[in-house]
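Following up on my earlier thread - several people asked me to post the actual chain instead of describing it. Fair enough. Here it is, all 322 residues.
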Amino acid sequence: MAVIRWGMIGCGNVTERKSAPAYRQVEGFALHGLYGRTRSKADDYAARHGVPHVFDSAEALINASDIDAVYIATPPDSHEAYALDVARAGKPCCIEKPMAPDHAACVRIRDAFAARDLPLFVAYYRRTLPRFRQVKAWLDEGAIGCVRHVHWTLTKPASPADVEATNWRVDAAVAPGGYFDDLASHGLDLFCWLFGEVADVAGFAVNQQGRYSAADAVTGCWLHRAGVTGSGSWNFGAAERQDRVEIIGSGGRILFSIFDDAPQRLVRDGTAVETVVEHPPVIQHFHVEAMRDHLAGRGPHPSTGESAAHTAWVMDRILSRR
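Reply from S.P.:
Thanks for posting it. Predicted structure:
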């Protein structure tokens, strides 16, 4: 297949080790250009990562004849404007998660690409990671019988980094749910992949600490169409860090973490089995590889604008946004 030349908008922390190196490593892809709001930072990034072209504007990158597809790696409040420009340019796109700050914006993005029959991916890369595919394999083979319920607890202590001026995750104008928008989206999207779409969901969000404008404590419950119930609690001013998912079945349970480097644990018939599945050195490698295969007609990518918009709907409902 011909090499697909990607342009990247944004060159923040997520692109340093998690994502951009994969666009250079995966055969058939090349990171051909980038745009960053601060030219000196963009030039430095390009020099360090071997990106041949730095553009003066996002518009110039999106419409460049030598850019075949665009990766949007900016804070979520800018995703919609950039994505709609990419759709108008007629190019495939990958958007960092969350797809946009709310479900309505996600729908507008999704529909713009669908109207032009253009591929749209969202970087919910856990759907492609071997660690979570092991969990799915256990579920698919009926290792814990019929799945009844899934619960996730995620907590972390407050830190000085919470209130840094550059931290979009605590700015309600960018991420109304605070760290929930950035972090919980990963797990909720994963649950939709494991158990299917959600039929009903409710929740509430509050600001307990008063340290910043976004919510810092969120709880929610939901029902998957397949009948699996779910619940979650996310608190970002707790005494200690905890990241624990428990899937309860009729014949056992599975325990794992969304973010922590912990083993997956299968418990049934009074016996526990632990397995450790390492992440790839570049965490988005399999996600980017799956995009390559999708564009080459080798099989669908598991995280698209459609699935990401559904995740956004679930999050809106938990945040009590109807």
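The mean pLDDT is 96. That should answer part of your original question.
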